[in-house]
Amino acid sequence: MTEQIALEVKDLHVAYGDKQVVQDVSLKFPARQITAMIGASGSGKSTVLRSLNRMNDELATVTGMINFHGFNINQPDVNVYRVRQQIGMVFQQPTPFPLSIYENVIYGLRLAGERDRQVLDQRVEESLRQAALWDEVKDQLKESALALSGGQQQRLCIARTLAVRPEIILMDEPTSALDPVSTSQIEDTLVQLKEQFTIIMVTHNMQQASRSADWTAFMHQGRLVEFGPTSQIFMNPQEEQTADYLSGKFG
Ligand SMILES: Nc1ncnc2c1ncn2[C@@H]1O[C@H](COP(=O)(O)OP(=O)(O)OP(=O)(O)O)[C@@H](O)[C@H]1O
């Protein structure tokens, strides 16, 4: 692979108590590209994803290297808050706070101590534009985020993640709670976002992976079976398990 690498996982193992659920996963995520993680329910996709910005710290034992700019962020003395600023997360269910649209977007910036109104205003507009929501909400920034539709709420959550200017955005089934129109809007947004951000997305939706992702990783029973360009994984998988999964033999 000649791509620039945003994040490299090496020999990742994850256990919940005694239960080993991810084994020996090594993977390089290309920069400013979309990588989809696919596989049957329980194959460990979300567990890998959550490990990438230390979201599993309280729940699981995660061993292995997660290299970000030549630095292993899976070490005890790493500033986890800083890691999560640089590697943001968008969840399956939209999770707006019961605050205005404006306050939702700048939530992370406020936590980081930003007080300059001009900076905040500018970041709200920038992030909402990047999340393709600005035109729909620019006249109602002071209104409650809870009044938005599900699809708008999810784009707001994307804007909230973007506002702290991460390099990488992790997405755990970001459209599974949404209708087809909202799903398609988010997919369009992702394609715009990859010009600036690296996106790693867990999805159950095979069409979504094949439409949106440049790279696809297939996981089965806690192991990475195959990783490659999306077209190759879907059209010409190298592993029998991948072919069986894609043809609906299991999962
Ligand atoms: N907090 C937890 N405590 C204990 N076991 C867990 C926890 N979270 C996940 N697991 C187990 O770890 C395994 C992998 O789960 P994970 O959610 O990573 O898989 P997945 O491929 O993302 O599945 P899905 O597509 O259903 O979300 C499963 O056996 C699951 O039951």
Automatic annotation (TrEMBL):
The keyword rRNA-binding does not apply. It comes from the Bacteria. One of its GO terms (molecular function) is hydrolase activity. CDD domains: ABC_PstB_phosphate_transporter (cd03260). Pfam families: ABC_tran (PF00005). SMART domains: AAA. Residues 7-246 form the ABC transporter domain. The keyword rRNA-binding does not apply. It is an enzyme of class 3 (hydrolase). Its EC number is 3.6.3.27. Keywords: ATP-binding, Hydrolase, Nucleotide-binding, Phosphate transport, Transport. NCBIfam families: 3a0107s01c2. PANTHER family: ABC TRANSPORTER I FAMILY MEMBER 17. This is Phosphate ABC transporter, ATP-binding protein. It comes from Limosilactobacillus oris F0423. The lineage of its organism: Bacteria, Bacillati, Bacillota, Bacilli, Lactobacillales. The gene is pstB.
